[in-house]
Amino acid sequence: MIRLIAITRDVSPAIAACELTHLAREPIDLNRAKEQHRAYEKVLERLGCVIERLPADAQMPDAVFVEDTAIVFDEIAVITRPGAESRRSETPAVASALSRHRTLVHIEEPGTIDGGDVLVVGHVVFVGRTSRTNDAGLDQLRRALTPFGYSVVPASVRGCLHLKSAITALDDRTLLTNRRWIADQQFAGFELVDFGSSESMAANIVRVGSGLLYASSFPRTLEHLERRGYSVTTVDVSELAKAEGAVTCCSLIFAVER
Ligand code: GLY
Q1: Quick one: 210 exposed, middle or buried, by C-beta within 10 A (0-12, 13-18, 19+)?
Q2: Atom of ligand 1 nearest to the CA of 114
């Protein structure tokens, strides 16, 4: 029997001191952020996940964005070396949780990778070259994945924090995109959908089993997705978005056999 696990991490009491790259700092209501995070976990449960929640840490403002600390494949889990030095202490707790489910491979210095820069679609692994992910990290990831038949494809990104701020998968063939932040030709072989609206952060969506989890802040894009027949569950993550996080950032979702 296949079961879906979602690793999450509680919102840090220090989230107001999070890293910010493209956003101006705004006050974050901690209680509201925690409520939104719990609601996000509840949706994951409704979509079939068993939650493995790690505790918050007052020394790790960004740790709720657990996606950046690891990339989980069917065969292995890659523990990243996050591009922001302030985030490197986040990885041991995630590695410990993942070691119960997968063999681990670690990205080593001088490599850096944030999981937010890695978009896995079947056996194609797009890796955004950003301020958080460098070529040494990309090469280490490629070496780790080559034995398992994955192809690692570098992608340039401009104007946003991570590759997955600009593009995520709706299914195995279709990618939801903000074309202003990526170069189309890098994703040859996939259908790119960009609804061209004013909702610039709307390209981040997360697949959960056969469902899709999406932020409630993008009603126009949601309407387009539903018109195309996608089944989308929304959740309000507006407080977490002030910390430059999105729906993919708050979980590591993978299948296990039980
Ligand atoms: N605040 C999320 C990040 O910069 O990694």
Answers
A1: exposed
A2: 5
Question: HEC string of 122-174?
Answer: CCEEEEEECCCCCHHHHHHHHHHHHHHCCEEEEEEECCCCCHHHHEEECCCCE
Rounded CA gap, 81 and 85, in Å?
Answer: 9
Residues designated as active site:
162, 249
Q: Where are the beta strands (DSSP E) in the chain?
A: 2-9, 49-54, 70-72, 76-79, 103-106, 118-121, 124-129, 151-156, 167-169, 174-177, 191-193, 205-208, 211-215, 232-235, 252-257
CA-to-CA dists, residue 193 to 50, 158, 168, 197, 225, angstroms: 31, 18, 10, 12, 10
pTM: 0.98
Instruction: Provide mean pLDDT across the span 234-249.
Output: 98
Residue with the smallest CA separation from ligand 1 atom 3 is 19
* Six-digit token string for 139: 């090469």
Task: Work out which ligand 1 atom sits closest to the CA atom of 245.
Answer: 2
Radius of gyration of the CA atoms of the chain, in A: 17
Fold of the domain built from segment(s) 2-257:
L-arginine/glycine Amidinotransferase; Chain A (3.75.10)
Q: 189-238: per-residue pLDDT in tens? A: 999 999 877 899 999 999 999 999 999 999 999 999 999 999 999 999 99
* Closest to 52 measured CA to CA, from 19, 99, 18: 99
**Over the chain, what is the mean pLDDT?**
97
β-strand partners of 253: 6
Positive/negative CA dihedral, 180, 182, 187, 193: negative
